Amino acid sequence: MLSLVQPQLTALDIWALGITIVIGGQYFSWNAGLVAGFYSYFGALLLMSTAYITMVLCLAEASSMLPFAGGAYGLSRCSLGFYLGFMIGCCEALEYLAYVASSVLMMGQMLVIISPSLKGYEPIIWLCVYALAIAVHLHGGATFWFANRVLAAVSLAVSLVYILGGLFLIDGDINATSPLLYAFSFSEVLGALPLTAWMFVGIESLNMASDEVLEPKTVIPRGQIACVVTLAATGLATYLVSAFVPPGLDSLAVAVVPLNEGFRRLFGLSEATACLLSLPATYATISGFIFLTGCSLSYMVCLAAYFVPSVNTHLFSVCMLSSFCAYSAQCYGYIYLRRRFHHLERTFTSPLGVPGAVFAFCVWQLNILSILGFQTSPGVAFGAFAVLWCLLTIYYYAYAKHRQTISDDERKILFVAHVANYNASRATQIKSGNTSKLKKSGHSSRRLLGRGGAVKYQIKASNQTNTLTTICTDH
Per its record, what are the GO molecular function terms (predicted)? Predict the structure, then answer.
C-alpha cells in the first residue's frame, strides 16, 4: 500500500463498506426472477431478506465475541475442523471471485449499451474496469476509506432518487393484464429464490474488516446491522417501485438494466444515458468485493465467459452454491459459539439467538436445493462445483494439511476455541482408550497452537487465563 496513514474507522465506515459491496446487486439481474410471478417472487424476496437479517444478527454477535478477520474460514476451522474450514474458506473465495466476474461482465454490457462501438472490445473493457477498481486499493489507507464513503454515498443517493422519483411514476393499472402479476408455480418460485440474493450477497463479509478497526467488538456489529437494515429497505423499495413503473412487469422481467425505464421517464433520458446512472453502484460493488479478494483469477473467469459464453450462464449458480455453503457454515459456527462459549463476554447479543440461526440455515439449504434441482441445466453447476471440491480436497490432503498453521491473529482471537476443541478431543480419546490417536492429535495441535499452547495450556496473555482455565476445567 502506498498510503501509510490509517484512519480511525467508525461504524459509519463499516456501513459504507457494506453498501459499496452489496448495493450494485440491486441495480441488475435480480429482475430475472419475475418470471415466477410478482407476488410469488416478492414472497421469496421477503424470505431471503429475513434470512440475511437473521444471519447478520448472528454474525454481529460472533464478531462482538471473537472479532476475527478471517471470515467464514476462521470460524469454520473452530466449529467444523481444519479440513472443512479450509473448504469453506475456498467456497467463500470462490463466491467472491465469481461475483466480481459477474459484476464486471454486467458493467461491460452496460458500457456497450452506452457506446455500441465498444462491442467486440469487452476483454479490454474488463481489464480497464479491474485496473480502475484496484487503483484505490493500491493507494490504501485514508484514501481508500474516503473513496469508499464517496462511492457508498453516490450509489445510495442514486438509488434513493430512483425510489422516491419512481413513486410519482407508479401506475397501479399497468400490470392489470400481465400474466406475471398473479403467476404462481412452486418450481418456478423455488428456482427463482437464489436470484433474490443479488440484493444482499456480500453483506456477510464485513467482519473481514475487523483487523482494520481499533474496537472491532463494538464497531463491526453496529456497522453490520445498520448496513443490512439499509439494504433490506432499499431492496424491497426498489422491487416494489420497479414493478409498477411503466411499461410494467413484462418488460422489467427481461430488461438488462432494470432501473433504466424509471430513470428514462424521470429525466427524459435515452436508454444509453440512463445506463450511466447505474454505473457508480456497479463499479462500487466491483471495488468493494476486491477489498475481500484479488482480481487476476476473476479476470480469467471473464475471459472464459467471453470465449465460452455458456460459462456466463452458470457462473451465478456456482457463485451462489459456494456462498450458501459458506453461509450454512457460518450459521452452524454461530450455534457452536453460542452453546460452547456462552460465558464469553460480548457487546451484542442477537435477539433471535439459536432459533434465528437455525431458520437462516434452513433457508440456505432450501437455496442449495434450488440450485441443484430447479435451475436450467442444474447438473452443470453442480458438476463444476463438485470437480472444484474434489480438486481442493486432493490439494488439502496432499499439500496444505501438512503445512497449515494458525496465524498470529487467529491464535490471539480464536485460541480459546481451538484449545477447547483440543480438550474435548483429548477427553473423548482418553475415555475410548485410543492413546495412539491422542498422541497424533496432540502433536498436530502443538504444531498448530504453538509451543505449550495445546499440552500445558500455559497462556501468557493474562486476559485469557481465567477463560481458558474455565474451559479446561469443563472438559
Answer: transmembrane transporter activity
Cα–Cα distance for residue pair 91/327, rounded to 1 Å: 10
Dihedral (CA of 140, 146, 149, 150) sign:
negative
Whole-structure pTM value: 0.85
Average pLDDT, the chain: 83
Q: Among residues 91, 75, 86, which one has the least CA distance to residue 403?
A: 86
Residue in the structure block whose three cell numbers are 488439502:
396
Look up residue 375 and give its amino acid.
Answer: Q
CA distance 103 to 146: 23
| 88 and 72 Cβ atoms separated by less than 8 Å | yes
Cell of 107: 458493467
- Report the C-alpha gap between 132 and 43 in whole angstroms: 38
291: Cβ contacts below 8 Å, ≥ 6 apart? 17, 21, 137, 208, 209
Beta carbons within 8 Å of 239's beta carbon, 6+ residues apart: 30, 42, 45
Structural domains of the chain, with CATH: 11-379 (1.20.1740.10), 408-474 (no CATH)
Q: What is the largest CA-CA distance in the chain?
A: 79
Q: All 3 cell numbers of residue 142? A: 485514508
Using CB atoms within 10 Å of the CB of residue 447, give its burial: 0 to 12 exposed, 13 to 18 middle, 19+ buried.
middle
CA dihedral of residues 102, 105, 106, 110 (deg, nearest 10):
170
Cβ atoms of 472 and 455 closer than 8 Å: no
pLDDT digits (tens, 9 = 90+) for 378-415: 778 888 889 989 999 999 999 988 887 776 666 665 56
Look-up of cell digits 427481461: 254
**Is residue 148 within 8 Å of residue 16, measured between CB atoms?**
yes
Mean pLDDT of 288-307: 72
Distance CA 122, CA 363 (A): 36
Name residues whose C-beta falls within 8 Å of residue 39's C-beta, 6 or more positions apart in sequence.
Answer: 181, 182, 184
